[in-house]
Amino acid sequence: MIPLDAEEDFSCPVCHEVFKDPVVLSCSHSFCKDCLQKWCDPPRNLALKNLCEAFLEERGERGRKKLKIFCLDHQQPVCVICRDSKMHNNHRFRPIDEAAQEHREELQKSLKPLKEKLQAFEEVKGSYDQIVKHIKVQAQSTEKEIKEQFKNLHQFLYNEEKIRIANLKEEEEQKAKIVKAKIEGLSREIGGLLNTIRFFSFALRRDVPNFGSLHRSKKAALEICLRHELSCSNLRLHPSEAS
């Protein structure tokens, strides 16, 4: 067994801590490897390293063996010497294993409501997840319905457009035929008037006009004018026919 008061013999003269991975120099002095690494790379002192590890392990075991009592008033482990000291006068003590068990039971009791609250939160979160899914499904259904309605509306407008354009073209053709017929009638009337005008012009250029012919021509001209007035009234395009 290594005496605890030998700690100075196992301390590094640089860091004043128990040797960690000690190395030995040619002068037989030992140091921690990290303390000398920036200066040189001496051979490792494995024997001293093993002694230091054994010392630390022994010290830890003794420390653990000492703390077998738990002070209920200070809520901390104590050794036998501390238990009898003035600091812990009239204090309550328990064996450390018993105190640890009591603490575990108290923690277990505290853990139960936390687990219950966690479960409640998870249930609420699950209900929210279901609501989110329902909202998504509802939105998708509404979107599908809107698209279907607009698809039908587009089809209706397309069909209505075709029907109206077809009716417009048919109306255009009918009106064009009416106007064309009136133009042809006007062309015939214009031709007749030109012939009559040429006849009168020729008769006026003669030195001795034929009064009988002039009288007949005048009467014929009056009849032509009357007929032309009737024809013009028939050949005029009524506003309802053009609109």
Automatic annotation (TrEMBL):
Sample GO molecular function, one term: zinc ion binding
Domain named RING-type: residues: 12-52
Keyword Metal-binding attributed: yes
Keywords, in A-Z order: Metal-binding, Zinc, Zinc-finger
Protein name per its UniProtKB record: Uncharacterized protein
Residue span(s) of domain B box-type: 47-96
Metal-binding found in the keyword field: yes
